[in-house]
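Quick start: what a row looks like.
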Amino acid sequence: MNSAWQSELNDLVRGSCGGFLFGIPLLYTMEVWWIGSFIEPPMMLAAIVTAFVAVFLLSRTAGFRHTQNIRMVDALKDTIEALAIGFVCTTIILVLLREVTPEVSLDEALGKVLFEGIPFSLGVALANLFLSSKDAANQNGQQDGVINATIADIGATAIGASIISASIAPTDEVAMLAAGISAPWLLALMAASLLISYGIVFQSGFANQDHRRQQRGLFQRPLSETVMSYLVSLLISAFLLWFFQQLQFDDPLSMWLRYTLILGLPATVGGAAGRLAV
């Protein structure tokens, strides 16, 4: 029984991580927030039906569970579960970003969650296709030396963080979010960033996580590696915000901190994906 629950938990974590890898950029897109704010119920229903069909087809071919020859009834169950994971995770992130608050009407909140949750759910259904674990053990086994392994991890984190956050840093979304978020929610966002990063690399089952735990490096323990990669992702975020003229050196430190922590969530997701790819 315990192993069954553990397997189910691993599947849920894998699906959630796939959703973050696929859906995090759209969670920072104001146009999607606005579409969700004004969507009518008939369009909501049509979106749900379309998402159900798309996720069902993906669940038949990929899915978020390590199973083969998926039966029709299992695919239906996985589809419902993938949509639920997508909507729940989306709701949590939108609450952390203060795009869903008690002051937001129920219709607007539902619309935002729906339109942000659909691409997130597609990521859940695609989880097993993002990063294959079959050949990962042969890729990193050749790294020689603690310093080289550490540099490889830092470089991969920086590259992954840059790829994801570079598409968000030049936009107005970061400034909009920073204007409406308070210090306690920033702390919650930091905790979520660390938790998601840890889940992607060490709990999702992507890219041979057992081999990942055995790699050498100065920060190779799961906790220290997660913290290190988060700090690197924050540095990349701050640099990109400055590079794209969203921050200036004479801006207040509190402004730098807010902007960097907000962009740090997608950067951390990208950094985690980068570490899995090396």
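That is the whole record. Residues 2-27 form the longest helix (26 residues). The chain has 13 helices and no strands.
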